[in-house]
Design brief:
The structure holds two protein chains of two kinds. Chain A is built from no helices and eleven strands. Chain A is an all-beta fold. In chain A, the strands form two sheets. In chain A, strands 2, 4, 5, 6, 9, 10 and 11 form a seven-stranded mixed sheet that branches. Chain A has a four-stranded antiparallel sheet with strand order 1-3-8-7, with no helix packed on it. The N and C termini of chain A lie far apart (32 Å). The mean pLDDT of chain A is 92. Chain B is an all-beta fold. Chain B contains no helices and twelve strands. Chain B is globular, with a radius of gyration of 13 Å. The mean pLDDT of chain B is 93. The chains are: A mainly beta, B mainly beta. Chains A and B meet through strand 5 and strand 10 of A and strand 5, strand 6 and strand 11 of B.
């Protein structure tokens, strides 16, 4: 049990719709990163938030956006959903992302199916 | 750009067999290295990690990994696998001082009882 919680666990959306996924970080952690894991692949880095600011982004289009709140919880928003957005979305939290000892801890993920 | 390569996508072993999963990364600087495991129906869990010091790292459940800097490798080993080790294993790398952890595509291990 990592203390990272995500909601919802499963959802189905229609192409073109928008979705919001939520994450509560582990106690004491101020950094949240989001990953997309398609079937048969490893997690792909979407972006990271550190103290409410986005401080890193992977190769995802601008329709993937996020927020981090003062309590360090976070949201991932995806607009104009496409079929290829169907995947497991993972949230991971950590403390001080640039410290040598930094390790990320994952939640159980949100399964998104776009039809 | 950083990348992680896991050589085997699927591995099938019998119980008590020895395991070695290959992992190579591309990055010229100082790195932190990780192995994560995902058991069926469960979330990604940290198995072990390397930051500095002894290149032979021991993790949970009898797993160990060796960092060989000259080969840019961080292979995972276990002398004798059990049926309960059936899972998907991911190697990951993060450059020291960087902000993101990069994952390999994963290796699915199936252990026959």
């Amino acid at each position: 049990e990592t203390g990272v919680t995500q909601s919802p666990t499963h959802l189905i959306k229609t192409r073109g719709q928008q979705v919001t996924l939520r994450c509560s970080s582990q106690s004491g952690h101020n950094t949240v990163s989001w990953y997309q894991q398609a079937l048969g692949q490893g997690p792909q880095f979407i972006f990271q938030y550190y103290r409410e600011e986005e401080n890193g982004r992977g190769n995802f289009p601008p329709r993937f956006s996020g927020l981090q709140f003062p309590n360090y919880s976070s949201e991932l928003n995806v607009n104009a959903l496409e079929l290829d957005d169907s995947a497991l979305y993972l949230c991971a939290s950590s403390y001080d992302p640039t410290s040598p000892g930094n390790t990320i801890y994952f939640g159980e993920g949100s399964w998104l199916t776009v039809v | 750009a950083q990348s992680v390569s896991q050589h085997n996508h699927h591995v099938i072993l019998s119980e008590a067999a020895s395991l070695e999963l290959g992992c190579n990364y591309s990055y010229g600087g100082t790195v932190n290295l990780f192995w994560y495991v995902q058991y069926p129906g469960q979330h990604l869990q940290l198995l072990l990690k390397y930051f500095s010091g002894d290149p032979l790292v021991k993790g949970i459940k009898g797993f160990e990994a060796e960092f060989i800097k000259s080969k840019f490798s961080f292979n995972l080993r276990k002398p004798s696998v059990q049926w309960s080790d059936t899972a998907e294993y991911f190697c990951a790398v993060k450059n020291t001082g960087g902000f993101k952890t990069i994952f390999g595509a994963g290796t699915r291990l199936f252990v026959k009882a």
